[in-house]
Specification:
The structure holds two protein chains of two kinds.
Chain A (H helix, E strand, L loop, with lengths): L4 E5 L8 E6 L2 E7 L5 E5 L13 E3 L2 E3 L6 E2 L5 E3 L19 E4 L2 E4 L17 E9 L3 H11 L6 E8 L2 E9 L4 H18 L10
Chain B lengths: L5 H4 L3 E5 L8 E5 L2 E7 L5 E6 L5 E4 L2 E4 L2 E4 L20 E4 L3 E3 L3 H9 L4 H4 L16 E5 L4 E11 L12 E11 L2 E8 L2 E16 L2 E10 L6 H19 L21 H13 L6 H7 L5
The chains are: A alpha+beta, B alpha+beta.
Chain lengths: 205, 297
């Protein structure tokens, strides 16, 4: 049973925008409609395989950049601009992933057309800090985070993107001061430098 | 490594521009095979495979036409496409630059045939909302010459060519022609000379099954635009299309009918995919990638 995986900071996906990402190689489009609802779907238009993350959001729909096919919040295609009078068959739809927002993060269960009956992560007040991408496997990132001791002061959710690419999405509990956010961000950057084997000196704080 | 697909091998492919081949040997790759080109002492282009030992194989058949050098790694059953407009003395031959695209050449052909994307990918140039409708058009697979054609493809275009400064738009009427899997052409009424048609060809060099480079060559009636103006126009169009082509998944073209969902506007792509399937080409297709790799998906 798949757990929830963080894929972005809520603050980083504004209404009317899209974000392309992946979990263990499965490409996902995360998008927020005009009303503020978050969606996470397979990042592929079934017409000609174009990535939906390059598409555009209008109101409560997302449209594919290639031919403008419009999809509603249920993942169903509702309009095909080449055929304005066509009633689009219900079979033309995009698989959706269960998605939840909690503690300043966007979470996805990487099960296409899966149910959301697995308990979502707890929703606590949080201040977003940053997402950071690291070109090493998720297991190495998790181990480095544990060794660093970050977990005691922040949430640093690990997202396995591909075999050697991982994202860390970090938030601080409650209302955090800018100095605390900056300090955590620098600590994460240092962690990335160690993991990626950089030999340059750290930037002084 | 050179592909083993006989259908792909037995065809003519563009590999260089005539103007760029001189006394200095040049290398490129066709269908996974490295080749070397050089202009020999008699002025003719010599094309040879680069062998594992870094030696060169025997000379391959080569044709210099349409501003380009074409060759084959096999034994084509047809001649290189005949473009009659190239023989008309009063036309401008515009040889555009090369574009490299990380996508299957077969996807590039489909994109060239497609009109429904004009308002979204080439906004306010080749199409604009709300003029998005693609009215029915006729497609045909010509059995005698073994080519795919689409006739009377109509679309409302704000500014279809570099000559059109006035953006009020016109209803374009286009015929499309696919003379071979990696060559596609269109014929459209010339905006500045309505009784004649511009002919635009796109020659695609498949480097790997998901990597190509392509060169547009045009035979235009246009006498007004500068060469630079026309090249810039083509460049904008191509860069917009590349954004799409490099983000289609899978990169290769699926020929299995249920893999993707066509509508009536996609009639030319449906005909093209059916024709490819009949020809039995594997290279550049999704199913072919599995077979040629020698294993299951």
């Amino acid at each position: 049973m798949s757990a929830w995986i963080a894929v972005a900071l809520s603050a980083d996906v504004e209404a009317g925008t899209t974000l392309g990402t992946a979990v263990d190689g499965a490409e996902i489009v995360v998008w927020r409609d005009a009303a503020g609802r978050i969606h996470a779907w397979e990042d592929r238009c079934p017409h000609r395989g174009m990535r939906m993350s390059f598409g555009f959001v209008r109101g409560d729909r997302i449209a594919c950049l290639y031919h403008g096919w419009q999809y509603d919040g249920d993942g169903r295609c509702r309009a095909i601009p080449a055929h304005p009078d066509l009633e689009v068959p219900a079979t033309i739809r995009i698989p959706r992933y269960p998605v939840a927002e909690a503690s300043g993060l966007i979470w996805v269960r990487p099960v296409p057309d899966g149910t959301a009956d697995v308990q979502a992560p707890p929703d606590e007040p949080a201040t977003p800090v940053r997402s950071i991408h690291v070109d090493v496997p998720a297991a190495d990132v998790a181990a480095a985070l544990a060794a660093d001791g970050l977990a005691s002061l922040a949430t640093a959710a690990v997202q396995p993107i591909g075999p050697a690419r991982t994202a860390i999405h970090a938030v601080l509990p409650g209302a955090a001061e800018p100095a605390a956010r900056a300090a955590l961000a620098r600590r994460l950057e240092a962690l990335r430098r160690r993991l990626e084997g950089a030999e340059i000196a750290e930037v002084p704080a | 490594m050179k592909t083993t697909d006989p259908v792909a091998l037995d065809d003519w492919y563009v590999v260089d521009s005539i103007a760029d081949v001189g006394a200095e040997p040049r290398r490129t790759r066709l269908l996974g095979q490295d080749i070397e080109l050089v202009r020999g002492p008699d002025g003719r282009v010599l094309v040879r495979e680069v062998l594992f030992s870094d030696g060169l194989g025997p000379t391959l058949p080569a044709i210099e036409r349409y501003g380009c050098v074409f060759t084959t790694l096999g034994a084509p059953k047809h001649d290189l496409v005949r473009i009659e407009e190239a023989e008309e003395a009063d036309r401008r031959e515009v040889i555009c630059g090369w574009f490299t695209i990380r996508a299957s050449g077969l996807r590039i052909v489909e994109n060239f045939l497609d009109m429904a994307h004009f308002p979204f990918v080439h906004t306010d140039i080749l199409g604009s909302e709300p003029h998005t409708e693609v009215v029915p058009y006729r497609t045909e697979i010509l059995r005698d010459v073994d080519e795919v054609w689409a006739y009377n493809c109509k679309f409302f275009q704000p500014r279809a060519a570099a000559t059109e400064k006035d953006t009020s738009g016109v209803m374009m009427d286009i015929d499309y022609r696919v003379p071979s899997p990696f060559i596609v052409m269109l014929y459209r009424v010339a905006p500045s000379a309505p009784t004649r048609r511009d002919a635009i060809a796109l020659f695609i060099q498949p480097i790997e099954d998901d990597l190509c480079r392509a060169i547009p060559v045009e035979y235009l009636v246009d006498e007004v635009s500068t060469m630079t103006g026309m090249l810039h126009f083509e460049q904008v169009i191509f860069l917009q299309d590349r954004l799409i082509l490099e983000n289609q998944r899978p990169r290769t073209l699926p020929l299995e009918p249920r893999a993707e969902i066509p509508t009536r506007a996609d009639a030319s792509s449906v005909a093209y995919r059916r024709w490819l399937k009949e020809r039995g080409i594997l290279y550049g297709t999704t199913e072919g990638a599995r077979i040629l790799a020698g294993g299951a998906a």
